[in-house]
Design goal:
The structure is a homodimer. By secondary structure, chain A is α+β, with helices and mostly antiparallel strands. The first copy, chain A, folds into two domains: 7-73, Winged helix-like DNA-binding domain superfamily/Winged helix DNA-binding domain (Arc Repressor Mutant, subunit A); 78-253, Beta-Lactamase, CATH 3.30.450. Chain A has eight helices and eight strands. In chain A, the strands form two sheets. A six-stranded antiparallel beta sheet of chain A has the order 5-4-3-8-7-6, with helices on both faces. In chain A, strands 1-2 form a two-stranded antiparallel sheet. The mean pLDDT of chain A is 90. At the A-B interface, helix 1, helix 3 and helix 4 of A face helix 1, helix 3 and helix 4 of B. Chain A binds a DNA duplex through helix 3.
Chain lengths: 255, 255
DNA sequence: TTGAAAATTCCGCATTACGGAATTACGATC
DNA sequence: GATCGTAATTCCGTAATGCGGAATTTTCAA
Protein backbone atom coordinates (compact mmCIF):
# COMPACT_ATOMS: atom_id res chain seq x y z
CA UNK A 1 0.00 0.00 0.00
CA UNK A 2 2.11 2.84 -1.24
CA UNK A 3 -0.34 5.70 -1.37
CA UNK A 4 -3.59 6.29 0.43
CA UNK A 5 -6.57 4.07 -0.29
CA UNK A 6 -9.22 5.50 -2.57
CA UNK A 7 -11.71 6.95 -0.16
CA UNK A 8 -15.00 6.75 -2.08
CA UNK A 9 -14.45 3.07 -2.79
CA UNK A 10 -14.14 2.11 0.85
CA UNK A 11 -17.04 4.35 1.72
CA UNK A 12 -19.26 2.72 -0.87
CA UNK A 13 -18.36 -0.74 0.39
CA UNK A 14 -19.09 0.41 3.90
CA UNK A 15 -22.53 1.48 2.71
CA UNK A 16 -23.13 -1.90 1.09
CA UNK A 17 -22.23 -3.64 4.31
CA UNK A 18 -24.61 -1.40 6.20
CA UNK A 19 -27.38 -2.18 3.72
CA UNK A 20 -26.82 -5.86 4.40
CA UNK A 21 -28.00 -5.37 7.96
CA UNK A 22 -31.67 -5.25 7.04
CA UNK A 23 -33.97 -5.50 4.06
CA UNK A 24 -34.51 -1.80 3.64
CA UNK A 25 -32.68 1.07 5.29
CA UNK A 26 -33.47 4.76 5.59
CA UNK A 27 -30.92 7.43 4.83
CA UNK A 28 -31.05 8.47 8.46
CA UNK A 29 -30.09 4.99 9.61
CA UNK A 30 -27.27 4.79 7.12
CA UNK A 31 -26.09 8.12 8.43
CA UNK A 32 -26.03 6.73 11.96
CA UNK A 33 -24.35 3.48 10.97
CA UNK A 34 -21.64 4.87 8.75
CA UNK A 35 -21.17 8.37 10.19
CA UNK A 36 -20.93 9.68 6.64
CA UNK A 37 -22.52 13.04 5.78
CA UNK A 38 -25.89 12.67 4.13
CA UNK A 39 -24.99 14.37 0.85
CA UNK A 40 -22.10 11.96 0.55
CA UNK A 41 -24.38 9.04 1.26
CA UNK A 42 -26.81 10.15 -1.41
CA UNK A 43 -24.05 10.59 -3.96
CA UNK A 44 -22.61 7.15 -3.30
CA UNK A 45 -26.02 5.52 -3.13
CA UNK A 46 -26.86 7.04 -6.50
CA UNK A 47 -23.67 5.54 -7.82
CA UNK A 48 -24.52 2.13 -6.41
CA UNK A 49 -27.99 2.39 -7.92
CA UNK A 50 -26.44 3.30 -11.23
CA UNK A 51 -24.35 0.15 -11.00
CA UNK A 52 -27.40 -1.95 -10.17
CA UNK A 53 -26.25 -2.95 -6.69
CA UNK A 54 -28.86 -0.96 -4.82
CA UNK A 55 -32.47 -0.03 -5.34
CA UNK A 56 -34.26 3.02 -4.07
CA UNK A 57 -37.51 1.86 -2.51
CA UNK A 58 -39.07 5.29 -1.92
CA UNK A 59 -38.04 8.62 -0.56
CA UNK A 60 -39.24 7.74 2.90
CA UNK A 61 -38.68 3.99 3.06
CA UNK A 62 -35.08 4.24 1.97
CA UNK A 63 -32.74 1.96 0.08
CA UNK A 64 -32.32 -1.79 -0.35
CA UNK A 65 -29.84 -4.15 -1.94
CA UNK A 66 -30.45 -5.31 -5.48
CA UNK A 67 -29.69 -8.71 -6.93
CA UNK A 68 -26.43 -7.65 -8.47
CA UNK A 69 -24.65 -7.61 -5.11
CA UNK A 70 -24.58 -11.39 -5.43
CA UNK A 71 -21.96 -11.01 -8.13
CA UNK A 72 -19.58 -9.44 -5.66
CA UNK A 73 -19.07 -12.65 -3.76
CA UNK A 74 -20.60 -15.61 -5.57
CA UNK A 75 -17.16 -16.71 -6.72
CA UNK A 76 -15.91 -16.94 -3.17
CA UNK A 77 -16.20 -20.61 -2.37
CA UNK A 78 -16.01 -22.68 0.74
CA UNK A 79 -12.45 -23.67 -0.09
CA UNK A 80 -11.46 -20.02 0.16
CA UNK A 81 -12.87 -19.78 3.64
CA UNK A 82 -10.85 -22.75 4.82
CA UNK A 83 -7.70 -21.18 3.47
CA UNK A 84 -8.47 -17.88 5.16
CA UNK A 85 -9.23 -19.59 8.43
CA UNK A 86 -6.07 -21.68 8.28
CA UNK A 87 -3.65 -18.81 7.75
CA UNK A 88 -3.05 -17.77 11.37
CA UNK A 89 -2.66 -21.38 12.49
CA UNK A 90 -0.12 -22.08 9.79
CA UNK A 91 1.88 -19.06 10.84
CA UNK A 92 1.79 -20.23 14.42
CA UNK A 93 3.07 -23.67 13.38
CA UNK A 94 5.94 -22.19 11.42
CA UNK A 95 6.75 -19.71 14.16
CA UNK A 96 7.08 -22.55 16.65
CA UNK A 97 8.63 -25.29 14.56
CA UNK A 98 10.41 -23.26 11.86
CA UNK A 99 9.58 -25.48 8.90
CA UNK A 100 7.24 -24.04 6.28
CA UNK A 101 3.62 -25.13 6.19
CA UNK A 102 1.24 -25.06 3.24
CA UNK A 103 -2.43 -25.71 2.58
CA UNK A 104 -4.02 -27.06 -0.57
CA UNK A 105 -7.57 -27.66 -1.75
CA UNK A 106 -8.86 -30.23 -4.18
CA UNK A 107 -9.78 -28.91 -7.59
CA UNK A 108 -9.99 -30.57 -10.95
CA UNK A 109 -8.44 -33.88 -9.94
CA UNK A 110 -5.41 -32.28 -8.38
CA UNK A 111 -4.43 -30.42 -5.25
CA UNK A 112 -3.91 -26.68 -5.64
CA UNK A 113 -1.55 -25.04 -3.18
CA UNK A 114 -3.54 -22.13 -1.86
CA UNK A 115 -1.33 -20.60 0.81
CA UNK A 116 1.88 -21.23 2.67
CA UNK A 117 4.39 -19.86 5.14
CA UNK A 118 7.43 -20.40 2.97
CA UNK A 119 8.52 -16.78 3.32
CA UNK A 120 8.24 -16.88 7.10
CA UNK A 121 10.41 -19.93 7.48
CA UNK A 122 14.20 -19.83 7.79
CA UNK A 123 14.34 -23.01 5.67
CA UNK A 124 13.57 -22.59 2.05
CA UNK A 125 12.71 -26.18 1.29
CA UNK A 126 10.92 -25.62 -1.99
CA UNK A 127 10.38 -23.30 -4.89
CA UNK A 128 7.24 -21.27 -4.61
CA UNK A 129 4.45 -23.77 -5.10
CA UNK A 130 1.70 -21.22 -4.64
CA UNK A 131 -1.21 -21.84 -6.93
CA UNK A 132 0.40 -24.81 -8.61
CA UNK A 133 -1.15 -28.22 -9.10
CA UNK A 134 0.14 -31.19 -7.19
CA UNK A 135 -0.59 -34.77 -8.25
CA UNK A 136 -2.93 -36.76 -6.03
CA UNK A 137 -0.91 -39.93 -5.58
CA UNK A 138 2.60 -38.55 -5.34
CA UNK A 139 2.27 -35.49 -3.13
CA UNK A 140 1.66 -35.75 0.60
CA UNK A 141 -1.20 -33.27 0.23
CA UNK A 142 -2.94 -35.30 -2.45
CA UNK A 143 -2.48 -38.54 -0.56
CA UNK A 144 -3.91 -37.04 2.63
CA UNK A 145 -6.94 -35.82 0.73
CA UNK A 146 -7.58 -39.13 -0.98
CA UNK A 147 -7.06 -41.24 2.10
CA UNK A 148 -9.53 -39.35 4.26
CA UNK A 149 -12.25 -38.27 1.84
CA UNK A 150 -15.56 -40.21 1.75
CA UNK A 151 -15.43 -43.60 0.00
CA UNK A 152 -17.62 -42.69 -2.96
CA UNK A 153 -15.69 -39.50 -3.63
CA UNK A 154 -12.45 -41.46 -3.56
CA UNK A 155 -13.82 -43.97 -6.04
CA UNK A 156 -14.79 -41.18 -8.43
CA UNK A 157 -11.43 -39.47 -8.18
CA UNK A 158 -9.47 -42.68 -8.63
CA UNK A 159 -11.54 -43.57 -11.67
CA UNK A 160 -10.64 -40.22 -13.21
CA UNK A 161 -6.97 -40.65 -12.35
CA UNK A 162 -6.91 -44.09 -13.96
CA UNK A 163 -8.10 -42.57 -17.21
CA UNK A 164 -5.57 -39.76 -16.97
CA UNK A 165 -2.66 -39.88 -19.39
CA UNK A 166 -0.36 -37.87 -17.11
CA UNK A 167 2.59 -39.88 -15.92
CA UNK A 168 2.16 -38.73 -12.29
CA UNK A 169 -1.20 -40.45 -12.22
CA UNK A 170 -0.02 -43.73 -13.71
CA UNK A 171 0.17 -45.40 -10.29
CA UNK A 172 -3.61 -45.11 -10.06
CA UNK A 173 -3.89 -48.09 -12.36
CA UNK A 174 -2.29 -50.37 -9.81
CA UNK A 175 -5.41 -50.55 -7.70
CA UNK A 176 -3.93 -52.92 -5.13
CA UNK A 177 -0.94 -50.67 -4.47
CA UNK A 178 -3.18 -47.62 -4.17
CA UNK A 179 -5.48 -49.37 -1.70
CA UNK A 180 -2.47 -50.43 0.35
CA UNK A 181 -1.00 -46.92 0.30
CA UNK A 182 -4.20 -45.22 1.37
CA UNK A 183 -5.14 -47.65 4.08
CA UNK A 184 -1.65 -47.27 5.51
CA UNK A 185 -2.15 -43.51 5.59
CA UNK A 186 -5.49 -43.86 7.31
CA UNK A 187 -3.94 -46.14 9.90
CA UNK A 188 -1.06 -43.74 10.59
CA UNK A 189 -3.20 -40.64 10.44
CA UNK A 190 -0.85 -38.78 8.11
CA UNK A 191 0.55 -38.91 4.59
CA UNK A 192 4.10 -38.47 3.31
CA UNK A 193 5.55 -37.34 0.03
CA UNK A 194 6.63 -40.08 -2.37
CA UNK A 195 10.45 -39.91 -2.08
CA UNK A 196 12.32 -38.58 -5.09
CA UNK A 197 15.97 -39.72 -5.41
CA UNK A 198 18.22 -36.74 -4.96
CA UNK A 199 15.53 -34.47 -3.52
CA UNK A 200 15.64 -34.46 0.28
CA UNK A 201 12.54 -32.31 0.78
CA UNK A 202 9.63 -34.14 2.36
CA UNK A 203 6.09 -33.34 3.38
CA UNK A 204 4.00 -34.50 6.30
CA UNK A 205 0.35 -33.94 5.49
CA UNK A 206 -2.97 -34.28 7.27
CA UNK A 207 -6.56 -33.52 6.27
CA UNK A 208 -8.64 -30.62 7.55
CA UNK A 209 -12.09 -32.10 7.90
CA UNK A 210 -15.50 -30.61 7.42
CA UNK A 211 -17.82 -33.23 8.77
CA UNK A 212 -17.17 -36.31 6.69
CA UNK A 213 -15.58 -34.28 3.89
CA UNK A 214 -12.01 -33.14 3.54
CA UNK A 215 -12.08 -29.36 3.25
CA UNK A 216 -8.34 -29.06 2.61
CA UNK A 217 -5.02 -30.72 3.32
CA UNK A 218 -2.17 -29.16 5.24
CA UNK A 219 1.47 -30.14 4.99
CA UNK A 220 4.66 -29.39 6.84
CA UNK A 221 7.75 -29.41 4.65
CA UNK A 222 11.09 -30.54 6.02
CA UNK A 223 14.41 -31.90 4.81
CA UNK A 224 14.59 -35.66 4.95
CA UNK A 225 18.32 -35.21 5.41
CA UNK A 226 17.73 -33.29 8.65
CA UNK A 227 15.55 -35.88 10.32
CA UNK A 228 13.83 -39.18 9.66
CA UNK A 229 10.14 -39.43 8.96
CA UNK A 230 9.60 -41.04 12.36
CA UNK A 231 11.31 -38.13 14.03
CA UNK A 232 9.20 -35.60 12.10
CA UNK A 233 6.03 -37.45 13.02
CA UNK A 234 7.01 -37.63 16.66
CA UNK A 235 7.67 -33.91 16.79
CA UNK A 236 5.07 -32.38 14.52
CA UNK A 237 2.06 -34.63 14.03
CA UNK A 238 0.34 -33.73 17.28
CA UNK A 239 0.62 -29.94 16.87
CA UNK A 240 -0.50 -30.23 13.26
CA UNK A 241 -3.54 -32.23 14.28
CA UNK A 242 -4.36 -29.69 16.94
CA UNK A 243 -4.15 -26.92 14.35
CA UNK A 244 -6.36 -28.84 11.91
CA UNK A 245 -8.99 -29.33 14.58
CA UNK A 246 -8.86 -25.67 15.54
CA UNK A 247 -9.29 -24.65 11.92
CA UNK A 248 -12.34 -26.89 11.50
CA UNK A 249 -13.82 -25.54 14.70
CA UNK A 250 -13.30 -21.92 13.77
CA UNK A 251 -15.07 -22.55 10.48
CA UNK A 252 -18.09 -24.15 12.04
CA UNK A 253 -18.45 -21.20 14.32
CA UNK A 254 -18.79 -18.91 11.34
CA UNK A 255 -21.20 -20.87 9.20
CA UNK B 1 -29.30 10.34 -10.58
CA UNK B 2 -28.64 14.04 -10.69
CA UNK B 3 -24.90 14.15 -11.24
CA UNK B 4 -22.49 11.62 -12.64
CA UNK B 5 -21.84 8.39 -10.77
CA UNK B 6 -18.65 8.22 -8.74
CA UNK B 7 -16.24 6.57 -11.12
CA UNK B 8 -13.79 4.82 -8.78
CA UNK B 9 -16.64 3.13 -6.95
CA UNK B 10 -18.06 1.51 -10.04
CA UNK B 11 -14.59 0.58 -11.19
CA UNK B 12 -13.79 -1.09 -7.90
CA UNK B 13 -17.01 -3.07 -8.01
CA UNK B 14 -16.23 -4.05 -11.56
CA UNK B 15 -12.90 -5.38 -10.34
CA UNK B 16 -14.58 -7.37 -7.58
CA UNK B 17 -16.91 -8.93 -10.11
CA UNK B 18 -13.95 -9.82 -12.28
CA UNK B 19 -12.19 -11.42 -9.32
CA UNK B 20 -15.24 -13.58 -8.77
CA UNK B 21 -14.60 -15.30 -12.08
CA UNK B 22 -11.82 -17.47 -10.74
CA UNK B 23 -9.95 -18.22 -7.57
CA UNK B 24 -6.93 -16.12 -8.36
CA UNK B 25 -6.45 -13.61 -11.14
CA UNK B 26 -3.38 -11.94 -12.56
CA UNK B 27 -3.19 -8.23 -13.14
CA UNK B 28 -2.93 -8.88 -16.84
CA UNK B 29 -6.18 -10.80 -16.86
CA UNK B 30 -7.93 -8.10 -14.87
CA UNK B 31 -6.63 -5.64 -17.40
CA UNK B 32 -8.17 -7.66 -20.21
CA UNK B 33 -11.46 -8.20 -18.44
CA UNK B 34 -12.05 -4.68 -17.23
CA UNK B 35 -10.15 -2.65 -19.82
CA UNK B 36 -8.88 -0.44 -17.02
CA UNK B 37 -5.29 0.87 -17.13
CA UNK B 38 -2.94 -1.17 -14.98
CA UNK B 39 -1.91 1.64 -12.65
CA UNK B 40 -5.56 2.26 -11.96
CA UNK B 41 -6.11 -1.42 -11.30
CA UNK B 42 -3.24 -1.52 -8.85
CA UNK B 43 -4.49 1.55 -7.03
CA UNK B 44 -8.00 0.18 -6.68
CA UNK B 45 -6.77 -3.30 -5.78
CA UNK B 46 -4.63 -1.76 -3.05
CA UNK B 47 -7.72 -0.04 -1.78
CA UNK B 48 -9.70 -3.26 -1.80
CA UNK B 49 -6.86 -4.99 0.01
CA UNK B 50 -6.83 -2.20 2.55
CA UNK B 51 -10.53 -2.80 3.12
CA UNK B 52 -9.98 -6.55 3.51
CA UNK B 53 -11.97 -7.57 0.45
CA UNK B 54 -9.03 -8.77 -1.59
CA UNK B 55 -5.75 -10.53 -0.93
CA UNK B 56 -2.58 -10.30 -2.91
CA UNK B 57 -1.34 -13.81 -3.49
CA UNK B 58 2.03 -12.95 -5.00
CA UNK B 59 3.47 -10.61 -7.57
CA UNK B 60 3.15 -13.19 -10.29
CA UNK B 61 0.11 -15.20 -9.22
CA UNK B 62 -2.07 -12.16 -8.79
CA UNK B 63 -5.02 -11.32 -6.59
CA UNK B 64 -7.85 -13.23 -4.96
CA UNK B 65 -11.00 -12.46 -3.04
CA UNK B 66 -10.85 -12.41 0.74
CA UNK B 67 -13.53 -13.52 3.13
CA UNK B 68 -14.86 -10.06 3.73
CA UNK B 69 -16.58 -9.93 0.35
CA UNK B 70 -19.21 -12.15 1.93
CA UNK B 71 -20.39 -9.16 3.92
CA UNK B 72 -21.33 -7.35 0.74
CA UNK B 73 -24.22 -9.66 0.01
CA UNK B 74 -24.94 -11.97 2.92
CA UNK B 75 -27.94 -9.86 3.86
CA UNK B 76 -29.48 -10.32 0.45
CA UNK B 77 -31.91 -13.10 1.02
CA UNK B 78 -33.89 -15.38 -1.21
CA UNK B 79 -36.97 -13.26 -0.64
CA UNK B 80 -35.19 -10.35 -2.31
CA UNK B 81 -34.49 -12.42 -5.38
CA UNK B 82 -38.12 -13.34 -5.77
CA UNK B 83 -39.09 -9.70 -5.59
CA UNK B 84 -36.49 -8.75 -8.16
CA UNK B 85 -37.56 -11.54 -10.46
CA UNK B 86 -41.22 -10.67 -10.12
CA UNK B 87 -40.89 -6.99 -11.04
CA UNK B 88 -41.07 -7.25 -14.84
CA UNK B 89 -43.97 -9.68 -14.70
CA UNK B 90 -45.91 -7.43 -12.40
CA UNK B 91 -45.38 -4.53 -14.75
CA UNK B 92 -46.60 -6.64 -17.64
CA UNK B 93 -49.73 -7.57 -15.72
CA UNK B 94 -50.52 -3.98 -14.92
CA UNK B 95 -49.75 -2.85 -18.45
CA UNK B 96 -52.25 -5.33 -19.80
CA UNK B 97 -54.99 -5.27 -17.18
CA UNK B 98 -54.50 -1.79 -15.72
CA UNK B 99 -55.05 -2.68 -12.07
CA UNK B 100 -52.06 -2.37 -9.75
CA UNK B 101 -50.22 -5.52 -8.67
CA UNK B 102 -48.10 -5.99 -5.56
CA UNK B 103 -45.84 -8.65 -4.10
CA UNK B 104 -45.23 -9.44 -0.46
CA UNK B 105 -42.97 -11.80 1.44
CA UNK B 106 -43.51 -13.42 4.81
CA UNK B 107 -41.51 -11.95 7.63
CA UNK B 108 -42.06 -11.93 11.35
CA UNK B 109 -45.58 -13.34 11.31
CA UNK B 110 -46.85 -10.81 8.79
CA UNK B 111 -46.66 -10.13 5.10
CA UNK B 112 -44.41 -7.26 4.07
CA UNK B 113 -45.26 -5.52 0.81
CA UNK B 114 -42.02 -5.50 -1.07
CA UNK B 115 -42.88 -4.00 -4.44
CA UNK B 116 -45.85 -2.90 -6.48
CA UNK B 117 -47.00 -1.25 -9.67
CA UNK B 118 -49.25 1.28 -8.02
CA UNK B 119 -47.57 4.18 -9.77
CA UNK B 120 -47.96 2.57 -13.18
CA UNK B 121 -51.65 1.93 -12.82
CA UNK B 122 -54.31 4.45 -13.81
CA UNK B 123 -56.35 3.30 -10.79
CA UNK B 124 -55.00 4.35 -7.47
CA UNK B 125 -56.76 1.79 -5.37
CA UNK B 126 -54.69 2.14 -2.24
CA UNK B 127 -52.32 4.33 -0.30
CA UNK B 128 -48.72 3.37 -0.71
CA UNK B 129 -48.40 0.08 1.09
CA UNK B 130 -44.75 -0.35 0.26
CA UNK B 131 -42.83 -1.90 3.09
CA UNK B 132 -45.80 -2.06 5.40
CA UNK B 133 -47.00 -5.09 7.32
CA UNK B 134 -50.22 -6.81 6.36
CA UNK B 135 -52.02 -9.19 8.72
CA UNK B 136 -52.00 -12.85 7.77
CA UNK B 137 -55.68 -13.66 8.11
CA UNK B 138 -57.27 -10.48 6.81
CA UNK B 139 -55.22 -9.57 3.77
CA UNK B 140 -55.44 -11.52 0.53
CA UNK B 141 -51.64 -11.77 0.49
CA UNK B 142 -51.46 -13.24 3.98
CA UNK B 143 -54.25 -15.69 3.28
CA UNK B 144 -52.62 -16.88 0.08
CA UNK B 145 -49.37 -17.48 1.90
CA UNK B 146 -50.98 -19.39 4.74
CA UNK B 147 -53.20 -21.48 2.54
CA UNK B 148 -50.42 -22.76 0.31
CA UNK B 149 -47.42 -23.05 2.63
CA UNK B 150 -46.40 -26.49 3.96
CA UNK B 151 -48.57 -27.89 6.74
CA UNK B 152 -46.01 -27.74 9.52
CA UNK B 153 -45.10 -24.15 8.71
CA UNK B 154 -48.79 -23.22 8.77
CA UNK B 155 -49.20 -24.82 12.17
CA UNK B 156 -46.29 -22.85 13.56
CA UNK B 157 -47.53 -19.56 12.16
CA UNK B 158 -51.09 -20.10 13.37
CA UNK B 159 -49.82 -20.96 16.83
CA UNK B 160 -47.95 -17.66 16.93
CA UNK B 161 -50.96 -15.75 15.68
CA UNK B 162 -53.16 -17.29 18.34
CA UNK B 163 -50.85 -15.94 21.00
CA UNK B 164 -50.75 -12.52 19.39
CA UNK B 165 -52.61 -9.75 21.16
CA UNK B 166 -53.17 -7.74 17.97
CA UNK B 167 -56.81 -7.43 17.06
CA UNK B 168 -56.18 -8.35 13.39
CA UNK B 169 -54.97 -11.75 14.51
CA UNK B 170 -57.88 -12.49 16.82
CA UNK B 171 -59.60 -14.67 14.21
CA UNK B 172 -56.74 -17.14 14.54
CA UNK B 173 -58.29 -18.39 17.76
CA UNK B 174 -61.35 -19.70 15.94
CA UNK B 175 -59.52 -22.71 14.57
CA UNK B 176 -62.54 -24.13 12.79
CA UNK B 177 -63.20 -20.91 10.90
CA UNK B 178 -59.54 -20.61 9.92
CA UNK B 179 -59.44 -24.18 8.63
CA UNK B 180 -62.57 -23.56 6.60
CA UNK B 181 -61.22 -20.31 5.18
CA UNK B 182 -57.88 -21.81 4.14
CA UNK B 183 -59.25 -25.00 2.64
CA UNK B 184 -61.66 -22.89 0.60
CA UNK B 185 -58.73 -20.88 -0.70
CA UNK B 186 -56.80 -24.01 -1.60
CA UNK B 187 -59.83 -25.35 -3.46
CA UNK B 188 -60.29 -22.11 -5.42
CA UNK B 189 -56.61 -21.56 -6.00
CA UNK B 190 -56.69 -17.92 -4.91
CA UNK B 191 -57.33 -15.75 -1.86
CA UNK B 192 -59.41 -12.59 -1.45
CA UNK B 193 -59.23 -9.69 0.93
CA UNK B 194 -61.59 -9.81 3.92
CA UNK B 195 -64.22 -7.23 2.92
CA UNK B 196 -64.26 -4.02 4.93
CA UNK B 197 -67.60 -2.18 4.98
CA UNK B 198 -67.26 1.11 3.13
CA UNK B 199 -63.96 0.18 1.48
CA UNK B 200 -64.50 -1.12 -2.05
CA UNK B 201 -60.86 -2.03 -2.71
CA UNK B 202 -60.25 -5.75 -3.05
CA UNK B 203 -57.29 -8.00 -3.63
CA UNK B 204 -56.98 -11.23 -5.58
CA UNK B 205 -53.89 -13.05 -4.39
CA UNK B 206 -52.00 -16.20 -5.34
CA UNK B 207 -48.80 -17.78 -4.07
CA UNK B 208 -45.46 -17.82 -5.90
CA UNK B 209 -44.09 -21.25 -5.14
CA UNK B 210 -40.56 -22.45 -4.64
CA UNK B 211 -40.88 -26.18 -4.56
CA UNK B 212 -43.20 -26.93 -1.68
CA UNK B 213 -42.57 -23.53 -0.08
CA UNK B 214 -44.30 -20.26 -0.76
CA UNK B 215 -41.60 -17.79 -1.79
CA UNK B 216 -43.95 -14.81 -1.94
CA UNK B 217 -47.55 -13.85 -2.59
CA UNK B 218 -48.75 -11.63 -5.38
CA UNK B 219 -51.99 -9.71 -5.45
CA UNK B 220 -53.99 -7.73 -7.97
CA UNK B 221 -55.94 -4.87 -6.46
CA UNK B 222 -59.28 -3.82 -7.92
CA UNK B 223 -62.43 -1.99 -6.89
CA UNK B 224 -65.15 -4.30 -5.71
CA UNK B 225 -67.56 -1.66 -6.98
CA UNK B 226 -66.24 -2.02 -10.51
CA UNK B 227 -66.69 -5.77 -10.78
CA UNK B 228 -67.65 -8.80 -8.74
CA UNK B 229 -65.10 -11.20 -7.35
CA UNK B 230 -66.23 -13.84 -9.83
CA UNK B 231 -65.68 -11.43 -12.67
CA UNK B 232 -62.19 -10.54 -11.42
CA UNK B 233 -61.31 -14.21 -11.08
CA UNK B 234 -62.62 -15.01 -14.53
CA UNK B 235 -60.54 -12.23 -16.07
CA UNK B 236 -57.34 -12.19 -14.07
CA UNK B 237 -56.69 -15.48 -12.32
CA UNK B 238 -55.25 -17.26 -15.33
CA UNK B 239 -52.79 -14.51 -16.31
CA UNK B 240 -51.71 -14.12 -12.70
CA UNK B 241 -51.05 -17.83 -12.42
CA UNK B 242 -49.06 -17.75 -15.62
CA UNK B 243 -46.97 -14.90 -14.22
CA UNK B 244 -46.40 -16.73 -10.94
CA UNK B 245 -45.21 -19.83 -12.79
CA UNK B 246 -42.91 -17.76 -14.97
CA UNK B 247 -41.42 -16.07 -11.91
CA UNK B 248 -40.75 -19.42 -10.22
CA UNK B 249 -39.18 -20.74 -13.39
CA UNK B 250 -36.94 -17.72 -13.89
CA UNK B 251 -35.68 -18.14 -10.33
CA UNK B 252 -34.84 -21.80 -10.70
CA UNK B 253 -32.85 -20.97 -13.78
CA UNK B 254 -30.65 -18.66 -11.78
CA UNK B 255 -30.01 -20.78 -8.71
C1' DT C 1 -52.78 25.09 6.21
C1' DT C 2 -48.95 25.27 8.61
C1' DG C 3 -44.78 23.59 10.51
C1' DA C 4 -41.21 20.49 11.55
C1' DA C 5 -38.28 16.80 10.09
C1' DA C 6 -36.00 14.35 6.81
C1' DA C 7 -34.17 13.73 2.19
C1' DT C 8 -32.04 15.74 -1.55
C1' DT C 9 -29.70 19.15 -4.49
C1' DC C 10 -26.41 23.05 -5.06
C1' DC C 11 -21.99 24.70 -5.75
C1' DG C 12 -17.22 26.63 -4.86
C1' DC C 13 -13.07 24.82 -3.12
C1' DA C 14 -9.48 21.61 -2.28
C1' DT C 15 -8.28 17.35 -2.76
C1' DT C 16 -7.39 13.34 -5.09
C1' DA C 17 -7.90 10.17 -8.74
C1' DC C 18 -5.85 9.64 -13.16
C1' DG C 19 -2.76 7.14 -16.35
C1' DG C 20 1.60 7.73 -19.46
C1' DA C 21 6.22 7.18 -18.58
C1' DA C 22 9.81 5.38 -15.81
C1' DT C 23 11.17 1.82 -12.82
C1' DT C 24 11.49 -2.50 -10.62
C1' DA C 25 10.92 -7.40 -9.95
C1' DC C 26 10.62 -11.78 -11.67
C1' DG C 27 11.72 -16.08 -14.08
C1' DA C 28 13.36 -18.09 -18.26
C1' DT C 29 17.31 -19.19 -21.06
C1' DC C 30 21.87 -19.82 -22.10
C1' DG D 1 24.85 -17.05 -12.39
C1' DA D 2 24.49 -13.37 -15.83
C1' DT D 3 21.43 -11.54 -19.20
C1' DC D 4 17.21 -10.52 -21.19
C1' DG D 5 12.27 -9.94 -21.89
C1' DT D 6 8.04 -9.51 -19.83
C1' DA D 7 4.81 -8.18 -16.60
C1' DA D 8 3.89 -5.68 -12.29
C1' DT D 9 4.38 -1.60 -9.85
C1' DT D 10 5.56 3.17 -8.61
C1' DC D 11 6.08 8.14 -9.91
C1' DC D 12 4.25 12.47 -10.49
C1' DG D 13 2.23 16.63 -13.01
C1' DT D 14 -2.31 17.71 -14.37
C1' DA D 15 -7.16 17.81 -14.65
C1' DA D 16 -10.98 16.31 -12.92
C1' DT D 17 -14.04 15.23 -9.40
C1' DG D 18 -15.36 14.16 -4.80
C1' DC D 19 -16.52 16.84 -0.82
C1' DG D 20 -19.97 18.50 2.56
C1' DG D 21 -22.13 22.95 4.56
C1' DA D 22 -25.86 25.55 3.21
C1' DA D 23 -30.03 25.97 0.72
C1' DT D 24 -33.98 23.67 -1.02
C1' DT D 25 -37.56 20.45 -1.59
C1' DT D 26 -40.54 16.80 -0.13
C1' DT D 27 -43.25 14.46 3.12
C1' DC D 28 -46.18 13.77 6.87
C1' DA D 29 -48.46 15.08 11.07
C1' DA D 30 -51.34 18.18 13.48
Amino acid sequence: MASEPVQPVLRALQILEALNQETVTTLEKLHERTALPKPTLVRLLDTLIDGGYVRRISRTAGYALAERVLRLSNGFRYADRVVDAARPFMHALTAEHKWPVAIATFENNAMIVRAGTRHKSPFSTDPNYLNTKLPMLVSALGRAYLAFCPDDERETILAMLRMSSARVNATARDEKAVARLLSGIRKNGYASTAPVPGDPSMGLAIPIMRGADVAAAMTMRYFGSAMTEEEAVRRYLAPMRAAALAISASLEGRE
